[in-house]
Amino acid sequence: MLEPDTKSQLLLQSTQPTQKLVNTECYPATSRVLHWVVALLVLVTWPLGFVIHLIKSEAAMTFYMLHEGFGFLVLWVMLLRVGNRLLVRSPIAEGHRLEQIAAHSVHGLLYVLLIVMPVSGFLATNAHGFPLHWFGLVEIWSPIGKATDIAGFLSGIHFWSAWLLLGLFALHMGAVLMHHVIKRDHTLYKIL
Fold first, then answer.
1. What pLDDT shows up at residue 191?
2. pLDDT of res. 23
């Protein structure tokens, strides 16, 4: 049996961050906040869009309005993220060169899809003849107006980009788990 002092020392050591963790270079605060805001918005917006076709028509309009409003918000926050990314320095990537290439590719595609998806959804809604009333408060100007000839194409882009986003999200979460649970490195702590 361990002495009381030995037990408390072991407990203290297990609860204190390692020196390497303390010295881990994090993303700037703006990058971290924008990352988590987008993550939260997507985790609200994507399911709202998915269930629109599964619920009764009288409630579907409320879900649609929320999906559309949050989606438009994703676009603007993503544009802020792109600007932030251009202005601030990111921490040095960990891992082998192939891991770094995969991480940059997935992040780049996430950025692209998180802009393409709300833009295509906004334009598809307009093309179907329904201007965006952002959360029922403000009507947003339509750059194309009603254009039924391209509405299906824009809806298709929106639909497939949503599924691609879900796949990339799964890859991203898999990488997070690999780094945090298997490799036990400090990648996750950089964005917290």
1. 87
2. 57
CA distance linking residue 80 with residue 103, whole number of Å? 21
User: Which helix or strand (DSSP H or E) is residue 184 part of?
Assistant: none
User: Which helix (H) or strand (E) covers residue 133, if one does?
Assistant: strand 133-134
Contacts of residue 26, defined as CB under 8 A and 6 or more positions apart, other chains included, come to 32, 91, 189, 190, 191, 192
H helix or E strand, kind and range, residue 35: helix 29-51
Determine the 3-state secondary structure of 2 from DSSP: coil
Q: Give the CA angle between residues 99, 26, 77 to the nearest 5°.
A: 90
Q: State which amino acid sits at residue 80.
A: L
DSSP letter, residue 28: P
Taking residue 24's Cβ as centre, other Cβ atoms within 10 Å add up to 18
Read off the pLDDT band of 7 (50, 70, 90). Answer: very low
Distance of CA 150 to the CA centre of its chain: 27
3-class secondary structure, 138: strand
- Which structure tokens are listed for 46? 């994507």
Q: What is the pTM of this model?
A: 0.82
What b-and-e string marks burial along 70-88, b requiring 16 or more CB atoms within 10 Å of the CB?
A: bbbbbbebbeebeebbeee
- Please, what sign has the CA dihedral across residues 18, 20, 26, 32? negative
3-class secondary-structure state, position 134: strand
3-state secondary structure of 139: strand
